[in-house]
Structure formats: C-alpha cells, structure tokens
Amino acid sequence: MAQERFAWATLDDKRQIEAIPAEQRWPGGTVYQMLAGTAARHPSRPAVSFQLKGGPADPAETLDWTALKAQVTQAANLFRSIGVGDGDAVAYVLPNATETVLALLGGMTAGVVSPVNPLLETAQIAAILRETGAKVVVTLAPFPKTDIAQKVHAAVAEAPGVETVLEVDLKRYLRPPLSWLVPLLRPKVERRHRARVLDFRAELARARADALDFAEDRDPDRIAAMFHTGGTTGHPKIARHCQRGMVYNGHVGALCLIGAEDVLICPLPLFHVLAAYPVTMTALASGAHLVLPTPAGYRGEGVMDNFWKLVERWGVSFMVMVPTAASALMQRPVNADVSSLKYALCGSAPLPVELFRRFEEATGLRILEGYGMTEATCLVSINPPDGERKIGSVGLPIPYTAAKILHCAADGTVLRDCATDEVGEICLRSPGVFPGYKDPARNAGLFAQPGDWLRTGDLGRIDADGYIWITGRAKDLIIRGGHNIDPALIEEALAGHPAVAFVGAIGQPDAHSGEVPCAYVELAAGAQVTQQDLLDFAAGRIAEKAAVPKTIEILDELPKTAVGKIFKPDLRKRATARIYTRALLDAGIRADVTVVEDPKLGLTAEIAVEGPEADEHAIEAVLGVFARPWRLRR
Ligand code: AMP
Questions:
Q1: pTM for this structure?
Q2: Mean pLDDT of the chain
Q3: Which CATH number is correct for 29-47+59-266, 1.25.40.10, 3.40.50.980, 3.90.1150.10, 3.40.50.920?
Q4: CA distances from residue 284 to 33, 41, 218, 247, 279 in whole angstroms, order as listed
Q5: How far apart are the CA of 273 and the centre of ligand 1, in A?
Q6: N or C: which end of the chain has fewer CB within 10 A?
C-alpha cells in the first residue's frame, strides 16, 4: 500500500521501490475505489476547498472526504441515468470549481471524461465534442463576465451527438448583495441545438449518494479519459488515458511526495493533465487537502496579489506552479506567514536557474522541478524530495517509469541507443504511457520499436546519476509559460498574406514567459510589406491572443532543409542572439552574441564582450532570467 512515505533520494532507491511489483505496492483498481478508500480512512478531514474570489477572507466551500465521495457518486449515477455507458464521453468545458472536480471524477467513473479548455474558440470546442463523440457536456450557466456558456451552446449546435447539457451556476458561490445582481447581469445565450439543458446541481441532488447504481468496470486497461493536447491549433490531438495510468499518478504521488497531512494548492486548470493527475489523483490517493483558488487559478482576479495570504489562510504545505507563475509571484513581496510551505512542484516548461534561486530564497521552500506530458498520463520525472536536486534538470524518472535516449527513424524503428550525456529523443515506458491518440492516423511512428517506447518528441540526455536534462523539443511547440502554442497556427495565418512566401514560427526567449511566439518571413518575389503590416495582419487572423507573434522578422531567404522544410534550429539561434544582444545592450553591455548547438547543453549563447574585461556577474544578472544557457567566448 502507498501509505508510508518512501525516502526516495537516488536511482538506487527508485530501483528498490521497483523491486516490489507494482501490484503489491498499490492495489490497482479504479479511481473511484481510491476515493472510497480515502473517504473510509479520513471521513471528516477536508478534501477539496474552492473559493470564487481571490481574497484571503472571501467565502470558500470545503467538502470533507465523506461529502466528496457522496457527490462524486451522485455525479457518476447522474451521468449513467442520462445515458452515459462505459465507452461514452462526458465532456466538461469548465473553469475550476467544486463541480469541475465532480465532473472529472464522476465522468471517469461512469464513462470516459473529456475535459476541454474553456478558453478555446467555439469551432475548436465543437471539433473536440465531435471527435470524442461526447454525449453529455457539463458547462457554466450564463454568468456575468464570461462567454463560456455562449461558446458552448454554439459548439453544441455543431456537435449533434450531444444529447444533454448540464449547467453549473456559479451564483451559489456568491452572497447577497452580489448574488442579487447575477440575474440582472446574466448574458443572453442563444440555443440553436436540440440537446436538453438541465441544471447540474438540481439533477445531482436527485441522484443516489451512498453507492453506485451500476457495477464499475474495473479493468485497468479501460479508457476512462480523453484529454486534448496543445489547445491553440484548429486540430488538437485527443489522447486516451487508461484507469491504470490515472491510479498510477496518484499512488506514486502519495508514495513519494504527499501525505494525508499535506495541503495542496492548485491554481492550475483542471482541463490539463498536471492538475488532473499528479495533483488531484495524488490528493485522492493520500488524503491530502486540495485547495482551488478561483475559477481561473493563477489568472484569477486577486490571486497573484493575495497568493501568500492564501497560503497562510489554508496552511498550504505544497504548491503547484509553472515558470510564468513563479516569475509573476516574484514580482510581489512575500507578505504573509508562509512557514507551512515545504515544496513547490514546478513543471510544463523550463524554469530559469536564476528564478529558481530567487524563489527559494524568498519563500524558504524547496522547488521540485518535474517533467510530464499528456501522452504519459502526466508525471514522468521529478527531482527527488529526499535527495539531490539538480537545478536545470527535470530529475529522476518516477518509480516504475523507465526513460531512454534513442535515435529513431521517422517510422519509430530504433536506430541506436544514446550513451550517457548524449542528446537524443527522450523515450519512455511506464504504467502511465497512453495507448495512443483517438485518431489512429496520428499514431504513426509514435512508439519506438522494438520495445514499444513512447517517443516524447522532446530532446534531452540522461546523466551518469540517471537525471534527465531536456535540451529542446523535436516537436517544436512554443511554450508560452506552460501554455502550448502550435507554431502551425501562426504559420498558417501569416501564409494567408499575399506578400508572404514562407513562414517559420518559433518560440523566442522571454524573461517572463520562458518563450513568446516569433515569426520569420520570406517575402514573395517583388513583394513589399512592412513588419508592422504583418504584425497587424497576424493579430487580425489569430484568434488566440497568446499565439499572436510578439516579433516578426523579414529575411531575404529562410533557412531550409534539403527537402525544402524550413529549418527551425537556425531561426531559434537568430532569435536568441537578437534577444540576448538587446538585453545586454539595455544593461549597458556591448557584446557579440552567437548561438551554437552544444552537444550537451543544446542551444547555447556564446558571448564575446567588447572592451577590456568581461564581467561574468554582470552578464549573469542580465541573462540569468532566460532559460537557455550562455558562456563567454574567449
Ligand atoms: P503537455 O502535454 O501539455 O503537458 O506538454 C508536454 C510537454 O511540455 C513536454 O513534452 C515537454 O516538451 C514540455 N515540458 C513539460 N515539463 C517540462 C519541463 N519541466 N521543462 C521543459 N519542458 C517541459
């Protein structure tokens, strides 16, 4: 069983854990069984707290484990009663709230839960509802200051398979006089679809709470969730998750990281794997208290400004963050008693070393940088809490996960294994590795053969102590603070301009967000256009604001491979040199910056400073905020 915390410090400790077969370390089974076990052990301890507003004294709702189990049971029974069978999808298009947790856990118990990013546009939501075959959609009732309900009802009109829409009214989280205003300010929503619309809470109240009305399918291979990747492309991929992988995330989290006495704050969205699995499943497996501050989490009104006070309010011991959030939090003073904090789990994008140090110094906690992805049902590796943390690495593979660095052909055939410290593609085997995307056409070459190793598309190396270092991404996503942007979206938009012949979009280094989108353009012969024209054009064509390029550069010719593909590594070098040169110049340092591909470090800036002597500390003060490494050129 996973109840004792395992002092996991080295690769050898991890191997000792793995020497015990997984089935003996934890009972397997389903997420619902995990929840029921915790509710039996800790019936009246707090399970989930949610506050609609971000202030430290704002009203909050807390469910204990008994209440959470009862309401999840009701949600699962409700979904069954409206036609959701084992293989049927229940989508939710919701910001964070207690009901989002109920939809997640109830949905995966009754059928296949499909969380959808509520910031997506109508057409994208509709495409996901169609591809997953969603029968039921849980979403917000029309509410002031959000257009989620409008978008979802319009999307349902384009997804004829949806039979029922269940609405969550956030009004119940407000007190008078604010709650009186809601009916006056509710936006009007057009319903041009035939799905019936019901009130989620009213239906829930009618469902049985003490036991499931149906026999749960406990097969660990049962597909219980479908998560979409990316989020900013017109065609996100739908990843399928088995019960085994979800339970695995929870039990490993409880084994290695979190116990029943912990309080876990999660200001990250529940439509992404990080919040859904390593966080929520770990709370479920361990009995820890999960705190969700506001529907929009870190983006919620007042959350950043009040964050440390929220930590004090709830006695938070473990926080979850992404690098952008860490950077924004460091813009504010630590103005509360945060002595309860022990660890911060940070993942989803590279965390600059300078920020890592500053954050630990200001808060007194320890950052555990980890690595995960949708295709592995999230958690892959983490710096061990009880052992050496290597800053800049993503730590050791979690127990029962094996990582290898391979070179593969496009079809997945392994060409060779890489040596220690040699960069190649990070490949994985674990109980969390998913069985593939819903659309079989997306699965070609996804697993390295022989051995069925998941190809992550991430480039990296494994050092002599077994730590994983990510050096780049084969798959080219632009990660703006943990928010994945597919470069194709930008490329397609700009290619629509008559003066543009070729476009390559990449992420350029950014002190705040890690990366921001940047596009390089080659003009059609004889065409003339200004950078500003192209920036305006892109802003008008790209619906997702985060994906609009920050910079567009026009080149005589874009670098291309032998088969005519735009060669992005050269664009990244250019952009990095430009950003680093500018940052140094702004600090009064004139330097010649060239960017090279270092076999161990990946893209690395080489700095030659003009003048008598280079002051390394002054350069570090400027460049330490960026994720990519640098060194002096002598
Ligand atoms: P997602 O499926 O949205 O979770 O995105 C997964 C991708 O995010 C991975 O394949 C990596 O490219 C990237 N990623 C996750 N964690 C880290 C990290 N700690 N450092 C760098 N990149 C990361």
A1: 0.83
A2: 92
A3: 3.40.50.980
A4: 10, 11, 17, 9, 9
A5: 11
A6: C
